Amino acid sequence: xxFEDLDDEDWVDPSWLGEVKSEIVPGMVLDPDVTKRWAVLxxxxxxxxPAVGNGFFVGxxxxxxxxxxxxxxxxxTTREGVRTADLTAVYETNPPDPSNPPxxxxxxxxxxxxxxxxxxxxxxxxxxxDYGFIxxxxxxxxxxxxxxxxxxxxxxxxxxxxxxxSGFEPGNRAFNIAxxxxxxxxxKIVVYEAKTQQGISGSAVWIDYKNSQVAIAIHNTGSSGNxxxxxxxxxxxxxxAFNWIQPSVMKKGIQIRAYAPPKSKALPKLPDKGLFLxxxxxxxxxxxxxxxxTKFDLMPGQSIHLKGGVYINEFCxxxxxxxxxxxxxxxxxxxxxxxxxxxxxxxxxxKKKIVVEQKGRSYELRVENSYIKEYDENSESSEVSFxxxxxxxxxxxxxxxxx
Length: 403
Fold this sequence. Notes:
Strand content: 35-45%
Shape: elongated
Number of domains: 2
InterPro entries: Glutamyl_endopeptidase, Peptidase_S1_PA, Peptidase_S1_PA_chymotrypsin
Distance between the termini: 47 Å
Strand order of the largest sheet: 5-4-1-2-3-7-6
Organism: Collybia nuda
Protein name: Serine protease
Mean pLDDT: 87
CATH architecture of the largest domain: Beta Barrel
Keywords: Signal
Radius of gyration: 23 Å
CATH topology of the largest domain: Thrombin, subunit H
Helix content: under 10%
CATH class of the largest domain: Mainly Beta
């Protein structure tokens, strides 16, 4: 059922009418003011008539040219593919601008080239394809801001805690946060109890994850008596967002090659052909290979917002067929390929080191080549392991290039 099929009263939740105060569940440490600053009111014309919708900023790391807003595709186009006109994004200063008082709103006209619409929406109209993105130009001094994210949450089959929907009401433009229990999790759709109303489509659907507001879906559909729903933020959605906002955010088809500083006295000389992380042998775990390695897509896997505007960013590696590299710092086979992403897939990059945090400790990946000779062709060994981070340069290679 789509919102066109519903009567007005089906969309009304008391919190959206001011009858019940909008609030975050007591006991949480999250800041509602931050949530408001990440919300975006969209104004536009659809079929010639004024309309409103919502969107929200997402804190994607390593973006230098634009901020990105996630929203529902039906805020950007009709089912027939006719673009909405005069799209304007209205939002508060992020972070608060010292030259403007708190609550100052920015109005940004959005040109067509800064709009992305999932092509599946105009072809099928399916709710899982009802999403799109908006770019907002940024200068070099601006910090990243927006909801956190974690790709692993796309694989959750249920969320036991409250699910929140936050955005601006279509009438008085007041900001509100509604919440409700998770009802169903499908592969590309999440259904939740919080009722909504027409005009808030595109709002952030989020949870409290690691004490951070983390977006899990884009609200797009209300349902009479059967909950509301949103398009889940799946790996495919993130891949499209990363590639569109700035191609350098996701490095496609890279190999992981051991690196040694020029003229290093602490390390043996690397083979001219190079040492690479490889899963080519089909043994199910990572090995070190001479001359070439497995190709991966390197992308942001998780971004968690902390107080003070700080983000903890972690990356992940996907194979060309959409599987994920996971690391196990305690086992003899430190890297494996999995169908679904989990916490073991996340790592940080620090001065060319691959750093993994597990069980409260930090480790760094290392490789050796004691059993690989320069004259060998495409030979492999199992000399892949972890050592405590930070560790100095040693007889093992603990720095890598992504090329």
